[in-house]
Amino acid sequence: MRWATTFGASRVNNSGLYQEGVELGRFLVQKGYAVKCGGYQGLMEAVSKGVKEVGGVVVGIGLEAFEPLRENNPYLTKKIIAKDLFERLRLLVKDSELFIVQQGSIGTLNELFLVWALKYSLKETFRVCLIGEKYLSFKNCDFIPKDTLKFLELYKTLEDFKGSLT
């Protein structure tokens, strides 16, 4: 089974962004991926909904501390509860070859940087794809070495990303 892991905002007030998450979930299944996500609301729920709509597998990796605070994601095939953030990230990264980062805040950026560092240091084959216009500024980032930046794929829109998986 090929795994893709998605990261994104836990709160989405934009119906267009939510719909983009649903479309991403559908697309990943159509390309032969099972999907992992954080397992809660927002873009995690949207991607899960898209996966479920086309009969795919989506595993949510939750966090023990979040369980009493967050609503259940009704679209998950399976949910795993991690004891701490490090175990959660390890489970999200394990066996995945494709990582997609959509709009988010500090938690999403934390996941991006940890995945990037882990996969880069292990010299594994992987793709880290950032979708959204704001991520394009990474091209001009001067505090991260250019040879490290080459491991990030930057896409302005979901359509641009979809074209990369043909």
UniProtKB/TrEMBL annotation:
Transmembrane segments: none annotated. It comes from the Bacteria. One of its GO terms (cellular component) is cytosol. SUPFAM superfamilies: MCP/YpsA-like. InterPro entries: LDcluster4 (IPR041164), LOG_family_nucleotidases (IPR052341). PANTHER family: CYTOKININ RIBOSIDE 5'-MONOPHOSPHATE PHOSPHORIBOHYDROLASE, LYSINE DECARBOXYLASE-LIKE PROTEIN. This is LOG family protein. It comes from Hippea maritima (strain ATCC 700847 / DSM 10411 / MH2).
